[in-house]
Amino acid sequence: MSEKHLQTGDVLPPYSGKLRVFAMRFCPYAERTVLVLNAKNLQYDLVFVNLDHKPEWLFNFSPKGTVPALEYEQGKAIFDSNIINFYLDEKYPEPALQSADPLRRAQDKIIVELFASVQSAFYTAAYNAQNLQPEMVENYHKGLESLQKELVARGTKYLHGDTPGLVDFTLFPFFERFEALPLIGKPEFALDKAKYEALVNYIDAMKTVPAVKSYYLTAETHAKFMESRNKGDANYNMLDTSDVCCMRPRKKKE
């Protein structure tokens, strides 16, 4: 699979008949949907797009120009990772990624909602460090402490249970990127195992899940992308090997 990010002027690849996801390789929200598709063992195509120079056709699938977007039939799509993933779990019910208990489903949604302040602190630290405030770091750690308490209280390997579920695949893409923050000069965001033993063990367990393992990128790789973006020239194609492939999309003729 090519990891080239298509941009303004590039042609939309032909539709193969499979589910098709429009994504950006370093986007945690797009990763959420990829992980759910993997967990469901669904066949799908990935089209990566450059979010600084968006292809014109992206807006046909995602009116806001955001990723992920899921083309479920040719020319028909839905967007937003949460909307897509709830759709996938209902459309393709095996394996089920949500609890059968309505209360537990609600509790899982609360976990995701409360995690928003942690995500916000991450984005500021990673891409807007000049505006990072001490209370943001404090909120980051408060959020992690709360999540760790929930893990301990549930007493299961994953938040979903003995196997990972939608709540786990929703949170993990951010944990994958949190590990890059100390590498770009933000040691205050490190997850000290002495303080976060249960949480670190949970993250390590998630890395071994086949749905995650096939898409996971190292902290060093995420750090390189963050640094390139902060320099004003995000290196979207740093993982691309399509130069050796005859299937590279061609640009429109002028």
Give the SSE map.
Layout: E1 19-23, H1 28-39, E2 44-48, H2 58-61, E3 69-73, E4 76-79, H3 81-91, H4 102-114, H5 116-127, H6 134-154, H7 166-178, H8 197-207, H9 210-213, H10 219-230
Parallel strand pairs: 1-2
Antiparallel strand pairs: 1-3, 3-4
Family: Belongs to the GST superfamily. Omega family.
Pfam families: GST_C_2, GST_N_2
Domain GST N-terminal: 17-96
Shape: globular
User: Looking across the biggest beta sheet, what order are the strands in?
Assistant: 2-1-3-4
Spatial separation of the terminal alpha carbons: 27 Å
Total DSSP E strands: 4
Largest sheet: 4 strands, mixed
**Poorly predicted regions:** 243-254
Output mean pLDDT: 94
User: Which structural category fits the helices and strands?
Assistant: alpha+beta
Radius of gyration over alpha carbons? Answer: 19 Å
Contiguous helical run count: 10
CATH class of the largest domain: Mainly Alpha
Strand content: 5-15%
Number of domains: 2
Assign the CATH topology of the largest domain: Glutathione S-transferase Yfyf (Class Pi), Chain A, domain 2
- CATH architecture of the largest domain, please? Up-down Bundle
Helix proportion = 40-55%
SSE string: EHEHEEHHHHHHHH
InterPro entries: Glutathione-S-Trfase_C-like, Glutathione-S-Trfase_C_sf, Glutathione_S-Trfase, Glutathione_S-Trfase_N, GST_omega, GST_Omega/HSP26, Thioredoxin-like_sf
Family: Belongs to the GST superfamily. Omega family.
Domain GST N-terminal: 17-96
GO cellular component, one term: cytoplasm
